[in-house]
Amino acid sequence: MTGAALAITHVPFEDMGAWAEALAEKQFTVQSIDACTAKLAALDFLKPDLLVVLGGPIGAYETEVYPFLSTEIVGIRRRLEARLATLGICLGAQLMAVALGGAVYPGRSGKEIGWSSVSPGPQAAACPAVSELFAPGVQVLHWHGDTFDVPPGAAHLAVSRAYPNQAFAVGHHALALQFHPEVQAAALERWYVGHACELGAARIDVAQLREDSRRHAPLLQEAARRLWRRWLDAAV
Questions:
Q1: CATH architecture assigned to 3-235
Q2: Catalytic residue among 144, 156, 180, 195
């Protein structure tokens, strides 16, 4: 398998992480662009074989404050309508939900930041690759305050204790994950600095979060690699 992937970032340190290695194994070329400064209106969202829309600390509904989000949503919608391979992580998943007619809003349970497991949603069988994350001992990194409604026509794949809507899929071509299976423990040091104000406001113990990451990231990385390979084989 070979191809071209485009990653859309919203902050530099929330990148492809371990999944860049998996794409390299499949001989994909990966280009990254910064949504905040790129000329999204001129971007052909249909051109890449794979589009990955990554996370960030803003809300998918904050289009008046961050106008580029409106252009990004339109581009994602066009790609999804064309049934082209698209993956969204955290904010990326929320933007996919909006593009598909779903709602995104601040979660009533507050911030979900830290490591915990996810469980199968009512339609988890629609995307067998996600079952890799339900294996015993696997925990994923959650880092969000907003949540989404599963959009019309999408399969509800995963739940957590804090928020029931953690992942959805549309056909074999679109996968949206609220959590972060792409992370690597060492690279998370940039997150602790970049999100220092958010962590402080939420009274998150960074030392404990670092220790949790050290313990849980290696097993997640292996599970996520299997997820990524299986999903790519079906989607691209």
A1: 3-Layer(aba) Sandwich (3.40)
A2: 180
